[in-house]
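Re: [help] complex structure
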Amino acid sequence: KAGVTQTPRYLIKTRGQQVTLSCSPISGHRSVSWYQQTPGQGLQFLFEYFSETQRNKGNFPGRFSGRQFSNSRSEMNVSTLELGDSALYLCASSPGQPDYEQYFGPGTRLTVT
Amino acid sequence: AQSVTQPDIHITVSEGASLELRCNYSYGATPYLFWYVQSPGQGLQLLLKYFSGDTLVQGIKGFEAEFKRSQSSFNLRKPSVHWSDAAEYFCAAITGGGNKLTFGTGTQLKVEL
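Output below.
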């Protein structure tokens, strides 16, 4: 099976702009989670979608949003970008239950200037 | 608050030496526990997981981890380190519903030849 894919891999945006990142999970997986990784804050959970519904949400401002489509592909959107949003954004997919491991994609490196 | 702690930020070992990376968790109930590895510029790869049962779990690449309830620990070990093991290692936990992983701050492993 193909792994988790994330597009684009690299992105440069300007403060105030918005950005949309995409994640295609492993075929058959219904859960997609998003994480932000920064040198200062480490790996932080953003949100999880399962069967098109947000199942869990981390402690991020409302500028961060996501959605999941019927084919389980997911997008996350960040509006009004700030310099502090520069990070590696990782997507993980799993069949849906906590006792299955999550498979991570390579990430999207977002740089905000 | 629920948390995962990795006390060692950096560890340096010689190739062929044994390795132990420490992880402690703070949860009301025993969470599901994981160890992930991340090479530079890459996503996260699952090394092993603990859900229940045998407290010594075997993973990929010759790694193992031991769950100790009395110490709230889940330390990662390898008998003989290879230069290719140089990477960052993350301990993580899930509790409750969904797939929200809480990560430790990571341990950067350097292997001296």
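Residues 3 and 26 of chain A are 5 Å apart (CA to CA).
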